[in-house]
């Protein structure tokens, strides 16, 4: 039995950092990092983070307690570790993110720095998630020649909708900031963090003569930002170009999360780049468990335009996006279910935010690729790795999402009228 130098892989803290290793009780422990960590230096790094000496300790079956081992029993894992203990192909997308960022760095080094404004006005858990995403953007963009500034609206003390005055003041603040972004020529793009109003209120009139309202205030806010400043591509004009297969000119930007998943699939599932023909997608069936306006729906449209058949699954319906602009079809719930869609699909994209949601492993097609977009795993990773070595699993897309954000910003600047 080989032992990794990271004997405490079951430690609650190092579980975030340790690679895939075999524990001393003979079972695999799978984590998200893929870089090999079998040296004493890496062990010392993990030990400093959680307070345990991982060279001399290992965890027994009972979590949270350590048992001392002799240093002689700890040996370095062999180079052909994966050959000895085969596991599913958990894919690290960092190389793709680095290649996308390199294009942006090359542009900023030759043409000067770019400027992005973040507008952060949501509440509660959405504010926490937006803050984390914003920090990730800040650290990444500093290295890539992009100035990133956040405009924040203070969180409301009153969380109920009874204070109409507070809500109106907030909406007016957002409108003023977006107007300022639209007017300023030194700002290359803006990122508005959604959802701001996840549960209403209903937006104003979209067309008063026809009696058509915006479904939500968020939809109204999306249309306030000029297409030339919309780094996420969420305004109505860009969404029309994405959706309409008859449009000759593709938009310069796409929703970042959807675009990141598309690039990941092109690189790691199809093995092809954007400049390859779309014929290779015609035999692909893809299941997307999410139909949000920022990920699930635009991704389904983009993949269908490339020739794939896409099942779009939401909480109350299943839609089929058919290839080459054919009519959208609503599936019969009596004959079509989540399990039947995943059994048919070459790719499953999971973006359900609930920690309790799990895709049944038994319903995954042989040789399929799973892309987890949610913050929490939408599959039982331990079961997947143990029982389905044929499945390729991509646990995170965050690095590529941030990289596509910078790529969108660069494209906005390149496509601006009068830009060199």
From TrEMBL:
InterPro entries, A to Z: NAD(P)-bd_dom_sf, THF_DH/CycHdrlase_NAD-bd_dom
GO MF annotation list: methenyltetrahydrofolate cyclohydrolase activity; methylenetetrahydrofolate dehydrogenase (NAD+) activity; methylenetetrahydrofolate dehydrogenase (NADP+) activity
Biological-process GO terms, alphabetical: purine nucleobase biosynthetic process; tetrahydrofolate interconversion
GO cellular component, one term: cytosol
Pfam families attached to this UniProt entry: THF_DHG_CYH_C
Domain Tetrahydrofolate dehydrogenase/cyclohydrolase NAD(P)-binding: 255-373
Top-level taxon in the UniProt lineage: Eukaryota
This protein's name: Tetrahydrofolate dehydrogenase/cyclohydrolase NAD(P)-binding domain-containing protein
The organism of origin for this protein: Pseudo-nitzschia multistriata
């Amino acid at each position: 039995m080989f032992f990794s130098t990271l004997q405490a892989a079951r430690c609650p803290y190092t579980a975030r950092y340790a690679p895939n290793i075999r524990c001393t009780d003979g079972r695999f422990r799978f984590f998200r990092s893929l870089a090999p960590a079998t040296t004493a230096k890496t062990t010392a790094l993990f030990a400093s983070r959680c307070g345990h000496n991982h060279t001399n300790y290992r965890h027994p079956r009972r979590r949270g307690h350590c048992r001392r081992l002799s240093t002689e029993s700890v040996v370095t894992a062999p180079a052909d570790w994966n050959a000895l203990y085969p596991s599913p192909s958990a894919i690290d997308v960092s190389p793709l993110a680095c290649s996308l960022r390199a294009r942006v760095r090359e542009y900023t080094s030759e043409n000067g720095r770019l400027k992005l404004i973040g507008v952060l006005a949501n509440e509660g858990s959405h504010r926490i998630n937006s803050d984390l995403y914003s920090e990730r953007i800040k650290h990444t963009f500093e290295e890539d020649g992009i100035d990133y500034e956040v405009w924040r609206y203070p969180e409301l003390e009153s969380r109920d909708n009874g204070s109409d005055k507070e809500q109106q003041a907030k909406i007016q603040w957002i409108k003023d900031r977006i107007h300022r972004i639209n007017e300023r020529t030194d700002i290359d793009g803006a990122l508005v963090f959604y959802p701001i109003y996840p549960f209403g209120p209903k937006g104003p009139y979209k067309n008063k003569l026809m009696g058509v309202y915006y479904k939500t205030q968020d939809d109204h806010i999306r249309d306030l930002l000029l297409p030339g400043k919309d780094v996420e591509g969420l305004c109505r004009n860009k969404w029309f170009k994405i959706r309409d297969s008859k449009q000759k000119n593709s938009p310069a930007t796409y929703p970042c999360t959807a675009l990141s998943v598309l690039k990941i699939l092109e690189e790691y599932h199809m093995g092809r780049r954007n400049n390859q023909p779309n014929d290779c997608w015609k035999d692909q069936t893809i299941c997307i468990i999410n139909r949000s306006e920022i990920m699930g729906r635009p991704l389904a449209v983009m993949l269908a335009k490339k020739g794939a058949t896409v099942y779009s699954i939401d909480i109350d319906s299943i839609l089929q996006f058919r290839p080459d602009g054919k009519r959208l079809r609503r599936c019969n719930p009596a004959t079509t279910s989540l399990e039947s869609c995943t059994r048919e699909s070459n790719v499953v994209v999971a973006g359900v935010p609930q920690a309790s949601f799990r895709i049944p492993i038994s319903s995954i097609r042989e040789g399929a690729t799973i892309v987890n977009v949610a913050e929490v795993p939408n599959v039982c990773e331990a079961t997947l790795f143990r029982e389905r070595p044929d499945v390729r699993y991509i646990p995170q897309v965050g690095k590529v999402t941030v990289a596509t954000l910078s790529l969108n910003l660069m494209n906005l600047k390149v496509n601006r009228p009068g830009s060199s």
